[in-house]
Write the structure tokens for this entry.
Amino acid sequence: MMKRTLCIITALLLILSVAAPSMGAVTIDYVKRQLSVYIFDMDEVSRMNCLFRSDLPDAPYMSAKDYLDTLFDGDFDEIRDGGVYTLSCDDVSMVIDTGKDTIHFDEFDALLDLDLSQEDEDVYYADDYDITYEGDDQSLDLDAGKYGIDLTEYDKHAYLPLVTLNDIFSATYLGAHYVGGKIYFTELMDDPYYDESAAYSKTTRTQAEADFTYNELCFNFDYFYGAPPKASAGESIKKRGLDKALDEYNGDDPSIKELLRSTDKSKFYIGLVALDSYLNDGGHTVLCGGMMSAMSEYPDTTLCKKLKKTPDGTNMNETMMYSTAISALMSKEYVAEEIKAIRDDAYTKYDIVKEWKKDKKNQKDGKKNIAAQLYVNGDTAVFVFDSFIHEVPKALKWSLEYAQKEGLKNFVLDISCNGGGSTSVLMYITSILLQKTDMSILDEATGSISRQHVTIDTNLDGKYDDKDRYTSYPLRYGVVTSEVSFSCGNLLPCLLQDNGIPVLGDTSGGGTCIVTQHFYPDGIPYYTSDSHMLIRSGDKQVDDGATPDYNLLKDDTYGNTDYSDFYNISLISQKLEDFYSKPRATEAPTESATESPTEAPTEAPTHESKTIAEVNMPKVDLSLIPMIIGAVTILIAVLTIIIAAAGSKRRKW
């Protein structure tokens, strides 16, 4: 029995429709259009057939084969068996059943790890990698029909909504963006090479568009959301799914679910902000991120003009919901600004040896645009960097050589204000400090673990040879962290601590999941914690952070948190002396109220390849609303930094 009838309206607008033969079948009309598709560059454009549902005129369907052939460096074979399509490349496959609206992968992670059509050209220090998979089953089954997402066929090809394809393959960090009537294949998490302002031209949408947006969001969260422990609603979503989890908040008027399904995009925005406060994991999940960033990037667009006046004060419940959520989202950013100010003041006491600027393409107007700094006090060097960007490896190598040449004893990485970045930079750091270039990733969607071993040009001579294995320095290492140390800024101290390098400061801020970028059907981007989770020794998630071996937090005379010892290099030097003077077979000392969960290893690290919950939101006094809404400007600026820096990219090296 046919479940539905596909009606294609051709370029000549000829409608070919056939009534569904069974009772209860759904008839969906589609329009075929040939669109301009840009392939990662404005100079490379092709024409592709796309389908549009009659009730969703701004949500294109793309041939799964066209999408996969553009995303990956290889052609996919497509075999049709009735309404079932099997697309395969290099012994991995994707099976699409257009009758049942289901998708099956035998080896989902192996498919994601196929060679991509685009590689990160900035990674000049890493090359080949080996991946092995652990776990009995890498399979993944997706039921799109459960969410009202129609999968269809046309001209002997399977077609899926473009946003659905993007959600499924977001962990490749490549995707396709439909905006302004054109499709742009793009490197996700990077600045767009095209004008995306058209995504912010409408302030309303139809109910069909609102429902499709909500259903696609539920599909994405139920299958690909990592549910990090720091997100208060994470466990509920993991157990019940997003739709049922939102029922817990239906006591509010309006409820978050009502706002998310509103035809008024300003109300949709309020719902996203409110939901973000329950999903707040430190910076990876930002459902309102695209809208907030657009208010500064595209201030003159119709939607952004309206969002700047949202909420308008006519509905006090909406205003309270919004202001409470903004307050919750801003709390960590206030701490980050406080710590940065304390650090900048403290380091004026020390000699700065060298400072490295960001590359021009990474610079932001009105910012210091510093990639890294090297300070020295006594026999200790402190290397400061706030993002894992590709300028860091050269700066780090220069600093280590300087410390060795000057006969220094200690080398400290200060990542107390580091919000994350590229895992390839992280691997470069561990290749020098630990002589290890391994990383493990758990996919919560399938339960499989991928073990990745990367070849690193440690000495940065442009060659990958045995000399890289012996690039090391006779220094005693340490790392300073705070609650602001997030994503890669959290994973690095976990890995270093697992290998006998002490952590000083405060427990790092978590961020165990990789961050992925998605698009709502109207083209507005958003960001989530993906199901791919970075793990440390013992295959443990790292969202709890690295507990410091030496806790440097203290209270001032007024009972406020005092971070000054984080940047007391003399004190840090003393702690390193204590740590490294102890017999390494014993447990690493700790001055923290919480015992460190790791022990120092009994052997020096070698260059061997391994194969290795729910809370109530605080209420805000209505008199504070103007101040809180004014703080949105700060949050917009912060989001720009988070989006640029927090991405622990699961990209090929």
